[in-house]
Amino acid sequence: MAVTTEDKLLTLLSDYAKVPRDSITVHSSMQDFADDSLAITELSFKLRKAFEVPIADQDLDPLETVGELLELVDLRLAS
To answer: Is the model's pTM score more than 0.90?
Structure first.
């Protein structure tokens, strides 16, 4: 069974925030994962490394939900 982008992203966020994977959904707030500039920098680095796509710190700033982050990752993977 292939791992979807959503599964990979939610697992990454779970590992990053040290919370159970099943507690994170596409409706979860990004504030739970990137609530300050250091967290945003760390998360953008992890995303770039995991998905091998360009994601800058400022790309994460306006995002409100994990679903919006998933859309960004999918968009970058498609380009």
So the answer is: yes
